[in-house]
Amino acid sequence: MPQEHRLILKHVDDPNYGPDLATYRKHGGYRALTKALKMKRKRGAKGALITPQEWLREEVSRSQLRGRGGAGFSCGLKWSFVDRKSGKPIYLICNADESEPGTFKDRQIIYKDPHQLLEGIILSSWANDVELAYIYIRGEFVEGARILERAIAEARRQGYLGKNVLDSGYKLEVHVHRGAGAYICGEETGLIESLEGKRAYPRIKPPYFPAVLGLYQCPTIVNNVETLCAVKHIADNGGDAYAKLGTPNNTGTRIVCLSGHVQRPGYFEVEVGKVTIGELIFDANFGGGLRPGRRLKAVIPGGSSAKVFRAGETFQLKGQKKKVKLLDLPYDFDSLLQAGSMSGSGAIIVLDDTADMIAALANIADFYAHESCGQCTPCREGSLWMSKALRRLAGGQGRRQDAEQLLHIARNIQGRTICAFGEACAWPVMSVVEKFREEFETRGEEHERAATEAKTN
After folding, report:
1. What CATH code would you report for 357-456?
2. pLDDT in the model for residue 1
3. What is the pLDDT of residues 400-457, one digit of tens each?
């Protein structure tokens, strides 16, 4: 029977574990930071003597840690892109703008174990010669921001932050910056624009890759909350030990948010790729199955922007002779990508046979129409058109051509916007309409028939 493997969430549900510094230190907190700051030059992967900071960067690369915010990009590779020769200051931003519908993992860390996040930020900043770091937190996390402010004050009093961190000569300040609850600020360049006090319009890449031209046009690292917490464990145990968790190219643990029509919704930390979608939904240690008498209809595997899977689908994965059924699909970055979707923010939304896919998609489309920043015409106009068409269809005024019209709009948004928000609003529409097209066409025909009969009578 599959089990959780709690690494980052090891203490969060312990009733005797609080968000204060004393509790964190009692459980080994800041041990990794203390050890790193006392480290001398050592041999690197190529045999040459390297600095402790270079050592940690190498360990993160060896761990094969991939970003936990959505894209699943290599953390070590992202750090390697930082322009260290520009002469400009390097900044680090913790992306705590957890906005993807269905996602509620980062807030557990912020509210229940803030010092773990803070230690990850300090280690990552130290490894990358950062002297000023920001935590950009979602505006709705009011208490979370207060908890982080208290944690930062505690850490500063104990010498973990300030002009001389643990008498090592390294200086670092961390500030909390509250957003205003805009989904687009989860996109790293939109976040940077907001942090600079401007409207959160995502930047064009190239040339505005954050590692080169980020905050204040300086080299900037943007990492997710869970990603930075993982760095703390890599520094403590080593990159090779971390890489032994999970599966090749999908290493470590992943916090999965399970919601929808399951008996035990919640957050679960598992080794990446060691648990299948079926186990996450039906196993007693995880979702506990669907509600009594219900059958699975669909699964959204990575937050509302991920393409939907229909129950009963099969997929051809690399290295597999036979097609893999949906419920046997490993929950990792690569398997879900090969199956035509993504693990995204780690949010699994389960829909049983009571779900109205048109109403569900209309709800998703409403969200994206509301959250579009409006910078790109295809997204600004198209997201609203899709929302209106779906609301009309859900409200009894649909037409049989609505399915094709929705696909046409979505295809004209995809790939035509500055940031990935275009895909975020287009992919749900494309996948739900394509996989449940009969529901859309049947509903449209029924509405047209009813309208014709009403006119006749």
Report:
1. 1.20.1440.230
2. 76
3. 889 999 999 999 999 999 999 999 999 999 999 999 999 999 888 888 888 777 777 6
pLDDT in tens, 199-240: 999 999 999 999 999 999 999 999 999 999 999 999 999 999
pTM above 0.70, yes or no: yes
- Side chain identity at 26, as an amino acid letter? K
- CA distances from residue 312 to 116, 122, 253, 341 in whole angstroms, order as listed: 40, 46, 27, 15
CATH top class, domain 247-352: alpha beta
Cα dihedral across residues 341, 345, 347, 349: positive or negative: negative
Residues of the chain with CATH 1.20.1440.230: 357-456
CATH class of the domain comprising 21-244: alpha beta
Q: Is the pLDDT of residue 42 over 80?
A: no
Report the candidate in 150, 90, 155 with the shortest Cα–Cα distance to residue 120: 155
Residue 289 burial class via C-beta count within 10 angstroms: exposed 0-12, middle 13-18, buried 19 and up: middle
